Amino acid sequence: MKQIAAVIEMLQKILPGQVVIDPDVLESYARDETIDLVALPDCVVRAQSAQDVAVVLKICNEHDVPVTPRGAGTGVTGGAVAVAGGIVLSMEKLNRILEIDARNLIAVVEPGAITADIQKAAKQHQLLYPPDPASLDTCSIGGNVAENAGGPRAVKYGITGHYVTGLEFVLVDGSIIASGGKYVKNATGYNICGILTGSEGTLAVITKIYLRLVPAPACSVDLLLPFVDLDAAVAAVSSLLQNGIIPATIEFMEQDAIRFVAAHLGQGMPCADAGAHLLLQVEGSTHPACHETLEAIVAACGIDGADVFVAQTALQQERLWKGRRSIREALREESPVLLAEDCVVPRGEIAEFLKHLKEYLRTRSLRSVMFGHAGDGNVHIDVLKDSMPTDQWKAMLPELKREIYRQAIALGGTITGEHGIGCIRREYLGMAKSPEEIELYRRIKHAFDPRGMLNPGKIF
Ligand SMILES: Cc1cc2nc3c(=O)[nH]c(=O)nc-3n(C[C@H](O)[C@H](O)[C@H](O)COP(=O)(O)OP(=O)(O)OC[C@H]3O[C@@H](n4cnc5c(N)ncnc54)[C@H](O)[C@@H]3O)c2cc1C
Fold first, then answer.
1. What is the mean pLDDT of the segment spanning 87-109?
2. Which end of the chain is more exposed for a tag (fewer CB within 10 A), N or C?
3. What is the rounded average pLDDT of the residues 5-17?
4. 128 Cβ neighbours under 8 A, 6+ residues apart
5. pLDDT score of 283
6. Closest among 424, 418, 443 to 143, alpha carbons compared
7. Distance from Cα 267 to the centre of ligand 1, integer Å
8. 10 Å Cβ neighbour count for 356?
9. Atom 27 (ligand 1): residue with closest C-alpha?
10. What is the CA(92)–ligand 1 centre distance, in A?
11. Euclidean distance between the first and final Cα of the chain, in Å?
12. What confidence tens digit (pLDDT) does each residue in 174-194 have?
């Protein structure tokens, strides 16, 4: 306690106006979007430069004070929550979009920049930054890199890590390192950017990011396809991929997902009676080209004559995507407590995975809603607590999680596709990774952070 008080005093002197100790303000840094996880930090430092980050890390490391990096706090695994106390190092003020280099198709940004703002800035140059987590209006790019975030467009474009060409980052001893840059190929030494991507703030603090951009498609059309049930929807996904049709997104939703969203938003959703839906985005150089692909999609899915909803206007497109992005909020209205899982399986195994899991949950009398990124095998499984007594729910959770993970792994998948391990999955890491691989993680962690001061309690 003495140490932390001395450290806060030192930081207040070196970074005046950037150190927060007001308990009311600290309260808003005590959680991210993880259900049931709260830990009040001793103080928050709002860094404004890489040098600020270096000062904080060096002092904290020397005085054994834990540091938890934080982007926008939208994580769902507790990564930005200071579970070991100490300092939350917030990147919210380090948020400039430094450059959109249209000649080199590269964006240079600070970690606190909001993902949607980067996309808007790129769009002004007819360029696209494709990764699109559903939280893109509120999450930061630093958090995206630290979690290797994905989104609906992953099926065609890949995930955050596929776009990082360079990083500037700060080690716990305060050294600032730049690796990579505006070039898109790099065989020079170890792939440090790759190691930091998805490292959940446990190895270094990222202070600048170089991102690859791609030309923006001239046109896109969104469509909602109705299916009798989830099996039929998932079979259609395989058929699309096998026919070489790769839309920008292939999202699936169970009927309940659409039903709850319609109630939550207070607006009707198209094809609401169908047993399951696919939400696709088709890109092309012209509208007729998009519509040609659209016809090929309907044929490949075997749903000729079905009531396909094609969003013709920006408003209709926005309405469809708002619906998709609001699923979790809508579910939390239905049951404020729920288990939100994020497994990934090989694409061809989705139907099998969902069928067995659904059956298992039904035998336990648990309501579940499944949705997610059918095109890349990443399934969101939300199990609702409903009126189950809290004690019973909490006692049942570990076994329930284990069973969900066991089924995903048995089909050649893994326990999380985009949300990460954080603190809520760390005790299950050993189900997906061998002891030898986990030991290698520990050695990497030790090389970056020998005293274990950076984001303790996460991943391991
Ligand atoms: C409604 C909703 C929808 C979501 N949809 C998706 C989705 O589609 N796909 C997806 O992948 N995720 C999704 N998420 C989860 C979350 O938005 C992502 O994990 C996102 O990348 C977190 O970004 P953030 O800025 O909020 O990071 P935070 O929550 O602040 O932090 C996340 C992790 O990154 C670390 N970190 C943050 N900044 C840095 C930095 N500069 N240097 C080092 N470490 C850092 C933190 O320590 C922490 O471990 C969703 C969340 C919500 C609430």
1. 98
2. N
3. 97
4. 119, 122, 213, 214, 215, 216, 217
5. 94
6. 418
7. 29
8. 14
9. 143
10. 13
11. 25
12. 999 999 999 999 999 999 999
Question: Of all atoms in ligand 1, which is nearest to the CA of residue 418?
Answer: 11
Atom number, ligand 1, closest to the C-alpha of residue 206: 42
User: Residue 1: pLDDT band by 50, 70, 90 thresholds?
Assistant: low
CA of 292 to the centre of ligand 1 (A): 37
Confidence of residue 2 (pLDDT cuts 50, 70, 90): low
State mean pLDDT over 403-417. Answer: 98
DSSP 79: T
Look up residue 388 and give its amino acid.
M
The torsion angles phi and psi of 76, rounded to 5 degrees, stand at: -120, 20
Q: Of ligand 1's atoms, which has the minimum distance to the CA of residue 75? A: 29
Q: How far is the CA of 145 from the centre of ligand 1 (A)?
A: 8
CA of 305 to the centre of ligand 1 (A): 41
SS3 451: coil
Between these two residues, 125 and 303, which has the higher pLDDT value?
A: 125
Residues present in the chain in total: 460
HEC readout, 314-369: HHHHHHHHHHHHCHHHHHHHHCCCEEEEEEECCHHHHHHHHHHHHHHHHHCCCCEE
Ligand 1 atom with minimal separation from the 132 CA = 8
Q: Which residues have CB under 8 Å from 455's CB, separation 6+? A: 66, 67, 68, 69, 79, 200, 201, 202
Q: Which residues line ligand 1 (CB under 6 A)?
A: 32-33, 68-76, 79-80, 91, 111, 133-135, 139-140, 142-144, 146-147, 149-151, 200-201, 205-206, 328, 418-419, 455
If one residue of 35, 45, 76 were mutated to test the ligand 1 pocket, choosing by the most ligand atoms within 8 A of its CB, it would be 76
Q: Please give the distance, rounded to the nearest whole angstrom, from the Cα atom of residue 359 to the centre of ligand 1.
A: 31
The region that residue 73 occupies, defined by phi over 0 for left and psi between -120 and 50 for alpha, beta otherwise, is left
pLDDT digits (tens, 9 = 90+) for 230-258: 889 989 998 998 899 999 999 999 888 88
Residue 268 structure tokens? 């009707």
Report CA(200)–ligand 1 centroid distance (Å). Answer: 9
